Amino acid sequence: MKIGILTFYCSDNYGAMLQAFGLKHCVKEIFPETEIIPYTPAYLAGRHWLLPYCPLGSPRESLFLAATSLKQNLRMGRSFFHQKKNMNAFRRKYLVQKRREIHTIRGLQKTAYDIYIVGSDQIWNPDITLGLRREYFGAFPCRCKKHVVAYAASLGGACLAPRYGEDMRALLKSVDSISLREMEAAPYIRSLTEKEISVVSDPVFFLNAGQWEQLETAPKEKNYILLYGTECNESMRRYAERLSEEKALQIVELSLRQTREEAGFTVRTDAGPAEFLGFVHHASYVVTNSFHAAAFCIIFQKPFLVFAHSCRNARLSDLLSACGLKDRLVSHGQTPPDIDRPICWHEAEAKKNLMSERSRCFLRQALAGSNHGSDG
């Protein structure tokens, strides 16, 4: 049985690449002939070029965004190229070894897999894919397709705008087994299809700490607080500064874009996924608003706090609740709790393992051609 995975592996994003590896690793344990399809559309990959391709909004808006991103990339200097090198090294070593990239639907139609897995990540978020893309529903003719499985697909929210409803309903007909990443989206998808809908864990939880450690690049920094944000959050930065003073530890700030230098901060903009794993694993404390940083804090059992994102908190809240760690989430305007408050890692690990085993069960049944997943 030959399995092909369609996901956002080409995005220079720690979470996107690590979830892609996690899903590939898990499915290969079931069917060794599993690979990530090297589908690299310009509307995704182009956002990470030196001169970015940003087809968002009007031509004027796209040009402005591209110029702004180019300015940021040039300001990063050598760090931009070191980051690209580290991203590409991980991608080639662990995701799509020496395969010619596919850029179009026509190229996908020439592929030959028995089962196509779409996901995980925000493959059903039209704001990211610039409209609903049929390839991420497996809705394209090809040589020998028998089954399409959606694993941990995300809309980026609880539902889509009304104008997407009928297209979504039609595209879901192409998917044989459906699972979602966020529980909040399940009612919406159930309103569009009679198929069973499961809610599953992020693929990074398919590997344990020891397995992820084999992929990491350990940082040269020692005794540090890791600060990593997916958006600017002044409350989070100020908290990290106070924690640094209290613990007499330096702050290492991990960023995909050039950020302002501040006294007491070491800013690293050159990290790829392997370096990201190392920074989380070897941190004394982690302060973040990133889902995947929180996920790896749980995997590596690091003391951490997660500051609420301005708009995307559902999956963070779901994850922390599922692992019995809801007290690690700092809501807007809330005084941060004591980061040294003891965590029962044995209990959190047991809950995490139960969550990932239910998700494995969905995959096994879906790959066997069953429509019966397990709600999680």
Automatic annotation (TrEMBL):
Residues 13-310 form the Polysaccharide pyruvyl transferase domain. Keywords: Transferase. It holds the Pfam family PS_pyruv_trans. This is Polysaccharide pyruvyl transferase family protein. One of its GO terms (molecular function) is transferase activity.
